[in-house]
Fold each of these.
Amino acid sequence: MLALDMYNFDKKINRKTNSLKYDDLESVFGSKDIDALWVADMDIATPIFIRDAILKRSKHKIYGYEKTKDKLYSSIQKWQHEQYNWKIKTKDILVVNGIRASLSAGVKAYSNIGDEVITFTPVWTPFFDSVTRNDRKLVKVKLQKNTNSYDIDFKAFTKAITKNTKILLLCSPHNPTGRVWSKKELLKLGNICLKHNIKIISDEIYSDLSFKKFIPIASVSKDISNITLTLNSPNKAFNIAGLNVSYAIAQDRKMYEEFSKIANARYINNITIFSSLAVIASYSKEGKIWIEEIKQYLKNNIRYTEQYLKENIPSIKYKKTNASYLIWLDFTDSSLSHEEIQKVLIKKCKIGLSNGHGFDKETGNKHFRMNLAIPFKEVKSVLKRLFRYNAKIINI
Ligand SMILES: Cc1ncc(COP(=O)(O)O)c(C=O)c1O
């Protein structure tokens, strides 16, 4: 029986394994001598029960092709039901080798060349690329920046809709703001989409790392589920990004078939023997305990950072993160340009953050995303450096 409090998240792990986050520091930031707080994976060991499942299979002498395991589907169904009270069937699920592949396939499946796809900005870059690379028209609707949170601007959303709007790409919970959408917001959004015949593609990869109640948009009403393709994966919460595994859920048959036709044509609907074992191991009893523990640790890193900024560096602003290990930092009080701020962050503070311009040049200007899935000791050290060089960052 696994007990709570059984993991040690404080341990520093050497990540020079050709990892994007560490081994690309020099080429992206021009320095190796900085803390890597950018790429969204965790500097925390992937849980032992996943590593064990992979190790066990790796001992077999042949890594040949394999059929998709029934257990893979039942694990996904059980997880969605038990964690989010959302009932899905095996036939609603398609495994895909990554969310980006599904975003792109979904855009292709539910729209034609030249059609419009709406997304809320700032948002993770592939939400843009998956639209433009398929020759669809990207329509950005800015999230409303209110005192305490980023909110959906329903007026602006409705205004942006035209007869050519075919899809809403939704990030739920939202990267980079860490916003968890409420049932009321999801219903309102879904009903607008229903009214205007717009399909929803909802990327829910951060759902398992929500600090408040997470609701899959497809679970809020039958009608909304019939216009929704949901994308998810244990990737973020279980730190298995390198396994390239995800799944898509469509409860409407026609939507499922349109999506799987593109997925088949692009050969994206197969995963490795190790990825399928990792999903099964994640969505287990041990996985539930892990989720509670890791969330507690990450939430502490986030809340500590928020409090520290509030008390010691109020010129660096933020909205409360309610999901993920990311914090979207706002440096708009600075008189420096975006590029000059980044220079101080790299050269003085010695930290490498995700560039806000990647999340949208306008709403991401003078913003940087910080990845706090690191040992707590390092969080403190990063914050001390931000404090020490704050005058240089703000430059007023
Ligand atoms: C919102 C969101 N979706 C999905 C992913 C991962 O996608 P993929 O499965 O293509 O690696 C990320 C990774 O950063 C993300 O931030």
Note: The chain has a mean pLDDT of 97.
Amino acid sequence: MKTNNDFKDILLNRRSVRKYKTDVVITDETIKTLFDEALRAPSANNLQPWTFKVIKTLEAKAKYSHLFPWNRNQYETSSFMVVILADKKYASRAEMIYNQQVERGTMAADVRDRHLKAFEEAQVNELDVIKTAYLDAGFVAMNLMLNARAFGLDTCPIGGFDKANAPIAFNLPDHEAVMALSFGVKDDEGYPSLRLGFDAVGSIE
Ligand SMILES: Cc1cc2nc3c(=O)[nH]c(=O)nc-3n(C[C@H](O)[C@H](O)[C@H](O)COP(=O)(O)O)c2cc1C
């Protein structure tokens, strides 16, 4: 795996790779570092409403194979797959996160208490909660895909899997499956894809 710290190369030359070398072993330590860095992604109120299931071993690949009736090439050749799930329970991690911030001195105790009270009293709209969680999951997914390139890996974002059954398979009833990502050392180049430029999709006033 050839590491890469050239941000422009990471950004501009990322493309979906759907076939990986199958003889590559990526350690759990590497996966955890890749994640810990990508987990710097922003989230609304810093609530981090995401859960990741990493499918790496042959046993795990066999166990969760039924969730991937499509995109078999990525599933079978990747060094590991990640399923990103969004936590539907609003602010479920607020106390844990904010307590740690107070301990580290990055949040005042009274600010934490005010926020926690506000979350408790909030009349939340479930659709808004899940929309925000999906947005947050998207940010972290992009961070993961870009950081993978820094580690010399390529990825493919995958919406085509059995999202309805994934929370059941992982025993996460309070979650929705948002997307999956395959990771590995590329065994083909993928293909260039067109992007509409700013003039086609944006305007400046
Ligand atoms: C939400 C989402 C779902 C996607 N689902 C799939 C998929 O199921 N299978 C696949 O091969 N590619 C999938 N892709 C990859 C897109 O086809 C790809 O990103 C797009 O064509 C642009 O190509 P590039 O990633 O190579 O730049 C998905 C991408 C996104 C963002």
Note: The domain at 26-89+127-188 is CATH 3.40.109.10 (NADH Oxidase).
Amino acid sequence: MGTVTSLTGYNAVVIGGPMYVGKIDGMGKFAKRHSTELARVPVAGFVVCLAPVTKDPVDREYAQKALRASLAPLQQVAEMVFAGRLDPAKLSWFQKWMIKKAKSPVGDFRDWTAIAAWARELPGKMGV
Ligand SMILES: Cc1cc2nc3c(=O)[nH]c(=O)nc-3n(C[C@H](O)[C@H](O)[C@H](O)COP(=O)(O)O)c2cc1C
């Protein structure tokens, strides 16, 4: 999202990003910046976070709502909340402190089979 300057020439757009402290990095700004072009093409969105790992439906719902809010008023043709990963070795001391306080699950929870299955369905859903 940081490097795309124009959506001219795209006939479908898949937008995704990680959730940090309840917010999806850069997604809202990207959607606003390209709102006119995005309104003309099918859009699918996903968020990567640890909400699916906690198995608490409230966490997943929060992530889904954050995704919708970031892309609003766009209507997504497909949306997904994917489980990500948390490697404490890659975090700053402050981030480590935050995840400890939040009792975040630690590990790699990415389900590549589920990710591939979702991706395979996109062309059909997006009509491309
Ligand atoms: C400081 C910090 C804050 C986070 N905040 C949330 C959060 O609010 N909700 C959530 O579900 N996951 C949260 N996560 C987990 C990340 O979404 C997860 O690590 C994800 O895989 C990050 O994407 P990336 O691996 O592409 O950077 C947080 C992780 C860190 C390190």
Note: The chain has one domain: 13-123.
